[in-house]
Design brief:
eight-stranded mixed sheet, archaeoglobus fulgidus dsm 4304 fold, alpha+beta, 224 residues
Length: 224
Amino acid sequence: MSYILLLDKINKSNFNQGKIEELYSILPEIIIIKDEPDFNPDIVGSCDVSYRSFAIVSYVAWSVSKRCVVEEITRKKEIPAEYIPGRFALRELPLIAEVLLEISSQIDCLILDGHGIAHPQMSGLASFAGVLFKLPTIGTAKNLLVGEYESPVLKRGEHSDIIYNLEKVGEALCTKDDTSPIFVSPGHLIGFESSRRLILELAINSKFPEPLRLADINARKSSL
C-alpha cells in the first residue's frame, strides 16, 4: 500500500496500531528535516499522556508572542496497546491523534514528550505525528534512546550533537544553567537549529518547553 493511500485511511474512526506498524518501514523516506529561514511559529501545541489503568491525554496550545495558554483539552481514554520498546508510537499516537482532532486553534508546531528521528528507525513519536498532521514537530525527552553525545557545558544554550550510525539525529541541549540537558530531535518539517531555538525560547519556568510542562501537569492532576 502506498503512503498516500495508507495515510488517507488514518482518520478519527479508523486509526489503529496496524497502520502505525506499517508506517514504520515507510516513514524514514518521507520525513523532511530542514531548517527554513522564515520559520517563526506563534501557536505551539504540546500533548502529554499520563497512564494508570487508563490514559489521561492533555493538550496545551501556547502563544509564543503573548506568552500565554490559548487552548487546553484533557481527555480520559482507554490504553490502546502495551508499551513495546522502540514502538512507543503504537501506544501513544492513537491517543494523541484523537485529541488533536478536537482542537479549535490552528497550531504552527507540535512539541511532544518523546523522540523525533533520534530513534532506532528514525521514526519516533514526533516524526509520526508530524507526518500524520503535516506539521513541524519536535521531540523532547529526559532520556536518550539511541546514539552517543559529549556532555555539554551546563549553561543555557550549550548543546552537543547526538550521533547515531554516524549521523546527527538530535542534540543534548541545556535550557537552564547548572541543569542536566534534555534530548531534542526534530520530528518532521523542521531542522536542528529551529528546534533548538524554539525549545530554548519556550523553556521559561523549567528546563522543559512551557506548553509541554503544562500538559504534563494537567495530565498528572487529572489522573489522580
